[in-house]
Amino acid sequence: MIISNPTAAKILAGLADWRLIWLVLLLPIVFMLPALPIDETRYLAVAWEMHSSGNYLVPHLNGAIYSEKPPLLFWLINLSWSVFGIHVWSARVITLLGSLASLFLLNRLVLRLSGSPTLAVRAVWILLGMVYFATFSSAIMFDVLLATCVLIALHGVLDLDHARHRRGVALIALGIGLGILAKGPVAILDVAFAFALAPFWSIAARANLLRWYAVGLLGLLGGLLITLAWVIPATLNIGVQNAQAILLHQTVGRVANSFAHQRPLWWYAMVFPLMLLPWPLVLRAPFAAWRAAISASQAGRFALLWSVPTFIAFCFVSGKQPHYLLPIMPGVALILALVFESPAARVRGRLFGALLLILGIALLTLALTAANPAQFASALSLFNRLGINSSEVDAVAGLWPLWGVCILLIGGFLLLRRSADREPRTLAICASAAVLALMLAQSQALRKELDVTDAAAQIRAAQDRGQPIANIGWHHGLFEFAGRLTTPLPSITFAQVHEWCIAHPDGLLMTFNGKYPIPVAPFYVQDYRFGHIWIWRASDMLAAHVAEKAPANPMDDKDDDDTQ
């Protein structure tokens, strides 16, 4: 159909705009997904404690200084709460806006590097189509926010290339300063190689190396000054050691000798291609096409020297988590966008359609199987042999077959749509739609396993009536935001249970860790992450002599369930 009305054509073009499509696809996740344990609930707890205590200078968790992360995300969450009210969704809005800002900044970055609006939009489509980026685009975590700060700093680096030194210094300072306040000094690493290796992509850097590095150093110093604007008053408030822990704990601890998430050197090489799906699956090009696409343009060299050395550096970091690589994904998107332009490149979007078709069939079959145990007894026995417990089967049984149908339809659309083999927009929309369907399926099927509101209400009620209550083992602030607690929930070891019960015979003890031998019937039980949350009366524990002779082994109470 030919559209002759210019206004109508403009409206249709606007409806196809990536910004609108991105928001339409991801807003339902913002409003429908509960806070996911353990990380999102912990960060909400820190933000809530900042709000309830009125101490916006230093993050706290359960009444103690929270040294794991700097305060920027918690400040932004509180800013959103002051506008929209205190909700999970109003905290998610911050990250969604950060991901949208990253897309805007990438679009502008590619446009400045190449002068090609087509390439800029293609890079954006590729980034928003990466299933891992789409998944984390509304997560209450730090990495999308860090990616936004990195892109701001990289715009400053480009300003140096264009001899706009004042603005370049200001943007580098702003990006690095906010990045450090978002996640610590790792922000410098995410920018360092694009700047340090500039002679390989920038004529201005090659022309005057001394000026290039001197001006860039000013930007770095400016970023450190922004950080010091918080560090100095925080240090006066909590002391040098605690302030250093907040800023350096994440970076130095994980680089030198990781206290968590230790992975082998090659681990990222195995994981990163999965994070970039569907593009590693559908894009085919000979090595010569990759080499030509990258080396023939300033944009290609910039993207390569930004993302590849940073990726290699992260491989040598002891602690590894997939989301640590989110800030370099825009650079990879630019490389892929350049390869898309090669005449030798081939896009097999229908392969991704076939994969979604298989996934949809699997989800549909799984939902129907788990929901009809009498009819599918043999399949359920297979679940048991695979180590899938009854709680997990019950959760899958609650999965609506609708979600499998949605994935089937998306896959079928890709198989039938010819444009899926020509341009990235169709693939990106379908990938984001699949992420939406899967996350809504998770919310619908697992909400009962993830929502701790009822247990948190029990804690709040006990605290309100002055009844002592404590958790056995560390709880990560799991209940603080859900219960809007204003009093810390004490954490004790299993070896301390008997002594605590003697001191508080009218109190309550709880845990969500099923490894403790407690042969007493709890008065409250709630499903939680395919296990349970239990609450006992201290008097019942005393009567049963629970932990009366328990050995004092702190490692028994250690919980490494942490994806920071």
UniProtKB/TrEMBL annotation:
Keywords: Cell membrane, Glycosyltransferase, Membrane, Transferase, Transmembrane, Transmembrane helix
GO molecular function, one term: pentosyltransferase activity
Coiled-coil stretches: none
Domain called Glycosyltransferase RgtA/B/C/D-like: residue spans: 69-221
Subcellular location: Cell membrane
Entries under Pfam families matching the protein: PMT_2 (PF13231)
Main location group: membrane
Sequence intervals crossing the membrane: 20-38, 89-111, 123-156, 168-198, 210-232, 265-287, 299-317, 323-340, 352-375, 395-415
GO cellular component terms listed in the entry, alphabetical order: plasma membrane
Membrane topology, from the record: Multi-pass membrane protein
UniProt record, GO biological process: lipopolysaccharide biosynthetic process; response to iron(III) ion
The name this protein goes by in its record: Glycosyl transferase
Species the sequence originates in: Pseudolysobacter antarcticus
Lineage summary: Bacteria, Pseudomonadati, Pseudomonadota, Gammaproteobacteria, Lysobacterales
